């Protein structure tokens, strides 16, 4: 049975299923000097890359080279000299040089040292944490006694008490120098009490510094900004910060998206992360502002926003769907029935969102909007007569026209014969809509006319009366 000639490759027919073997090219002698020279060169290169000391003509004639050593799995033809598979190049089984072996050994040694170093650091940090925890649980000076001593030292004729108090403070500093973490944390929380951020703290009832610290730490941990308790009883806050109508909708959105979010930071809960993203989308506040509000770094805000935005796009995009015609007919509002019957399928319009000026000159030109006089992205939105969003296009550069955007965003492919599309004057897409055997309704023009005739006036009034709904939807988005 033929076997593979490559060193270290033991594949052979009969045992390995689906294997393909290729002969070492022979010298072609009866098709001209050029073919003979080319075949000779190819045979020489094959023998060179096989690189075996025991090669004989018998072995070359009986054994083969398997498909595992070609990029495409097939040897290239003789005439295709510049194909990468003209000669075997993969998994040739040549031993590594001494230099490579030395480099690999050094790399492994560095990795081992790094592993040991990380292990020692982890053990050291664990020991420090245990030591700090022990010192944290040690009782301190009673606050009431300490405050009374300070007050007594400030009264006339109490120099001796004052000196004792100073000595007491000096001894306390020397004794508790190693517990600076506890003191700093207590000072921070004590200032929070004085400033009013932590209220109703029973300092007079706390007999020791440890009890005081435990109480303040508990109060600080439970008062997190923008958590569920902050929004639970106030739909006004939900609407202002997130754009969602009620807390129930906010919680349902969170339950729908959060299972697919991988935690990025332990500083915030998943709910706080989603609220932060919605606040950015709703209020467009700077990242630095969100960092101050949530007590995290600006880079954390940026990473969280980018991560959540992708997942929200994947999870929430399927909620925007194109309704069936029967659904539209059953739920058609009376104002549409009166003016246009049951034919109205979608009301379309475009809106623009400001964006950062791109550094690329071409992108800068494509995003500059002559209407907004700013770099923007333009998006086409379609709503049903009931006011539900049924279509949202991809974001395009602000320079693009409404007509080009509508014809290339995929909206026309959803139309059925007999559908009615309602749009503004800038959507001159009669031809594209007519190809779908649908109808376009836009307000009448006065171009070339002194005034509109009464029929056009009534028609335009009816269009304006119902098109206001899409403007309201866009207003809710922005």
TrEMBL record:
MF annotations from Gene Ontology: DNA binding; zinc ion binding
THAP-type domain location: 1-91
Cofactor: a divalent metal cation
Entries under InterPro entries matching the protein: HARBI1_dom (IPR027806), THAP_Znf (IPR006612), Transposase_HTH_dom (IPR027805)
Disordered: annotated span: 93-134, 150-186
Keyword annotations from UniProtKB, A to Z: DNA-binding, Metal-binding, Zinc, Zinc-finger
Signal peptide positions on this chain: none
PROSITE patterns for the chain: ZF_THAP
Feature: compositional bias, Basic and acidic residues: 160-177
UniProt-listed Pfam families: DDE_Tnp_4 (PF13359), HTH_Tnp_4 (PF13613), THAP (PF05485)
Superkingdom assignment: Eukaryota
PANTHER family: SPINDLE AND KINETOCHORE ASSOCIATED COMPLEX SUBUNIT 3 (PTHR23080:SF144), THAP DOMAIN PROTEIN (PTHR23080)
Protein name: THAP-type domain-containing protein
Source species: Acropora cervicornis (Staghorn coral)
């Amino acid at each position: 049975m033929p076997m593979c000639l490559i060193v270290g490759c033991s594949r052979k027919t009969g045992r390995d299923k689906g294997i393909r073997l290729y002969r070492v090219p022979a010298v072609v002698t009866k098709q001209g000097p050029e073919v003979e020279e080319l075949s000779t060169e190819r045979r020489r290169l094959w023998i060179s890359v096989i690189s075996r000391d025991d090669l004989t003509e018998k072995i070359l004639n009986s054994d083969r080279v398997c498909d595992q050593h070609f990029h495409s799995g097939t040897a290239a033809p003789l005439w295709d000299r510049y194909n990468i598979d003209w000669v075997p190049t993969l998994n040739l089984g040549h031993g590594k040089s001494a230099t490579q072996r030395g480099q690999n050994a050094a790399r492994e040694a560095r990795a081992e040292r790094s592993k040991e170093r990380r292990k020692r650091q982890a053990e050291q940090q664990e020991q420090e944490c245990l030591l700090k925890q022990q010192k944290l649980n040690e009782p301190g000076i009673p606050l009431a006694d300490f405050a009374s001593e300070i007050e007594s030292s400030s009264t006339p004729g109490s120099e001796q008490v004052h000196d004792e108090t100073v000595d007491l403070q000096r001894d306390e500093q020397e004794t508790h120098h190693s517990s600076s973490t506890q003191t700093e944390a207590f000072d921070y929380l004590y200032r929070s009490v004085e400033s009013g951020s932590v209220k109703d703290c029973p300092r007079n009832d706390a007999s020791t510094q440890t009890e005081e610290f435990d109480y303040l730490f508990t109060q600080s941990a439970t008062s997190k900004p923008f958590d569920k308790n902050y929004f639970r009883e106030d739909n006004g806050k939900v609407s202002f910060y997130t754009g969602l109508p009620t807390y129930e909708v906010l919680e349902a959105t969170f339950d729908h998206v959060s299972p697919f979010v991988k935690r990025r930071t332990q500083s915030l809960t998943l709910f706080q992360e989603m609220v932060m993203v919605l606040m950015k989308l709703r209020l467009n506040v700077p990242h630095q502002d969100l960092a101050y509000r949530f007590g995290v770094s600006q880079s954390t805000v940026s990473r969280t926003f980018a991560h959540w935005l992708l997942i929200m796009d994947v999870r929430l995009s399927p909620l925007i769907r194109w309704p069936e015609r029967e659904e539209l007919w059953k739920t058609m509002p009376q104002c549409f029935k009166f003016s246009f019957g049951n034919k109205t399928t979608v009301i379309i319009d475009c809106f623009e969102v400001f964006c950062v000026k791109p550094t690329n000159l071409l992108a800068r030109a494509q995003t500059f909007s002559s209407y907004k006089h700013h770099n923007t992205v333009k998006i086409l939105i379609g709503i049903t007569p009931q006011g539900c969003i049924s279509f949202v296009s991809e974001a395009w550069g602000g320079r693009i026209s409404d007509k080009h955007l509508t014809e290339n965003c995929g909206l026309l492919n959803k139309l059925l014969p007999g559908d009615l599309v309602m749009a503004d004057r800038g959507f001159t897409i009669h031809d594209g809509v007519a190809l779908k055997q649908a109808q376009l309704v836009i307000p009448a023009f006065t171009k070339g006319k002194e005034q509109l005739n009464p029929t056009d006036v009534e028609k335009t009034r009816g269009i304006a009366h119902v098109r206001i709904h899409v403007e309201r939807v866009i207003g809710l988005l922005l």
